Amino acid sequence: MKVLVAGAGLGGLCLAHGLLRAGVDVRVHEREDGPHSRYQGFRIALNAHGLAALHACLPERLHALLAAVSGPMAGERRVMDGQLREIRRLGAVDEGTATDRYVLRQLLLAGLGDRVEFGKPVVGYTERADGTVEAHFGDGTGAVGDLLVGADGVGSAVRRQLLPGAEVVTVPGNAVLGRTPLTERSAALVPGFGTVVHGTGASMLLGRMEFRRPPRLAAAELAPDVRLPDTGSYLRWVLMLPGALPAGPRAWDAVRDDLLAVLDGWHPDLVDLVRRADVVNSSPLTVRYAEPVPHWDGSRRVTLLGDAIHTMPPSGGQGANTALRDAALLARTLTAVQHGTAELPDAVEQYEQRMLEYGFAAVAESLERLPDFTPAR
Ligand SMILES: Cc1cc2nc3c(=O)[nH]c(=O)nc-3n(C[C@H](O)[C@H](O)[C@H](O)COP(=O)(O)OP(=O)(O)OC[C@H]3O[C@@H](n4cnc5c(N)ncnc54)[C@H](O)[C@@H]3O)c2cc1C
């Protein structure tokens, strides 16, 4: 069996590892030119589903490295005002672990070699009379397999063709995502799982990414063939603004100056986070979610996973976890096909039924939690 995956994000790469473990021939086609082409170093909180999926799919030799480059995430979730006075507590959380998306993606690329092809945007597909499917790439080339998995994120080209009526909604308001190198002083802003600040004119979400060990050094020691970024611990913040920011791409300095104007009068430690933000890893952020879709008839040669089908706001901390869960579930169902104990169309249908149920439940939960993260008016 040959599986084509569109998108080398967290879900697509996790699936590739799970399929390789089962001896399936898998190829991942990624639109970006290389593994470092885009800013993507934000913190991801992995819950029990995400961790179980990674452990099920990644080769065992990488498990210790994953643990070494993760960070603690437990304790009280506090809500503060703009002067850092406590408003309320949302309760303690003691599950999961913090990872950085960029580091995790580099770790997921380990051992996949030329099975991942960069610079290959999938622009569409054709189901062929012999039961195979051909993926078409932006450069005019194509690849043929038994199954095409659209793991190509929120703007999925595969979803657009498979489910043209599926809707992705943009949440009004504006968010800016930033990260600032961790210092003793800024670490004190997030003593527990996370801190939400409801200040005048905006809300700010704070989370800590404190690597247990520096990623590059940990890789050199635990898995020398894996090259991880030389990145330090940081404080991740998301500033949610009720009004629109000027449209179009803008230099970070201009965005930062707008934010500093909004934060006028806020506690200096909060203002300092924006002032000292890491330019490469800070940018405006669009929050989107997918409307539920019923299980579709028709193709069982093309399916979807992760944000490509059930994108959700980051408020629930579930998008990546659900994408990884999809990957592990699909890898498991396809393993049965590879071993001759299931038929491909049945396996895909079974996967889709379950994925749609828990995937859209996660979207609904994330939407319910969105008000906690929007600016108090
Ligand atoms: C600020 C922020 C914080 C978050 N925090 C959390 C968190 O704490 N916990 C959590 O679980 N989730 C979190 N998420 C959500 C999480 O990042 C996403 O849900 C997750 O990355 C989705 O994984 P994916 O593999 O489906 O898609 P992605 O990781 O987006 O990967 C899609 C890949 O497909 C590629 N691609 C796109 N189009 C094409 C094409 N046409 N052809 C080929 N390739 C294509 C893209 O370049 C990309 O590499 C957060 C998101 C944000 C923005």
C-alpha geometry: globular
Give the CA-CA distance, first to last residue.
Answer: 55 Å
What's the CATH class of the largest domain, please? Answer: Alpha Beta
Low-confidence stretches: none
What's the CATH topology label of the largest domain?
Answer: FAD/NAD(P)-binding domain
Number of domains: 2
Estimated radius of gyration: 21 Å
Quick one: biggest sheet?
A: 7 strands, mixed
Beta-strand proportion: 25-35%
The largest beta-sheet arranges its strands as 5-4-14-15-16-13-17
The CATH architecture of the largest domain: 3-Layer(bba) Sandwich
Keywords:
seven-stranded mixed β-sheet; five-stranded parallel β-sheet; alpha/beta; 377 residues; binds flavin-adenine dinucleotide; 2 domains; FAD/NAD(P)-binding domain; D-Amino Acid Oxidase, Chain A, domain 2; 33% helix
